[in-house]
Amino acid sequence: MPLLSAQEDFVQRTLGALNGIWKKLVFTTGLKGDGGKYRHWGMEREHGVAASQEAIEAAHRALILELVEMEIPKVVYAAGGLVEMQKLGVKTICPTGLENCLRKHADYVLWTTQAILAAQAQAGCRAA
């Protein structure tokens, strides 16, 4: 029997090893396959497919909520030119089933961040 719940395991052990909200979001988004299902071999082996799916989706939702509560300059600074974030489409970084108004707000934050990073790159500067 695992010492940690699937949620605690994913947040503490997996996401805890990553620095910053963007790296956590990019990693979590990368676990989402076709059809919006998350796959993580170690989590599935330890907690089962259903519990792992639920835990990763909850963590992904929590990361999006954390992101949309941040001020745009802090979001841009946190991204700091993270190439992986710029390669992701705005829609792909949101978890499946996100409420429409929250998705729209997250889309706005993500699109704005990408636009600012692109403008900074074109101007040859970095987030302050």
Q: Which regions are unreliable across 5 or more consecutive residues at pLDDT < 50?
A: none
Q: Total helix count?
A: 7
What profile does the largest beta sheet have?
none
CA-atom Rg in angstroms: 15 Å
Measured between the Cα atoms of the first and last residue, the distance is 47 Å
| Relative helix content | 55-70%
Question: How would you describe this protein?
Answer:
The protein has 128 residues and is mainly alpha-helical. The protein has one domain. It is 66% helix and 0% strand. The chain is built from seven helices and no strands. The longest helix has 24 residues. It is elongated and about 50 Å long. The chain starts with 5 loop residues before the first helix and ends in a 5-residue tail after the last helix. The model has no long low-confidence stretch (mean pLDDT 84).
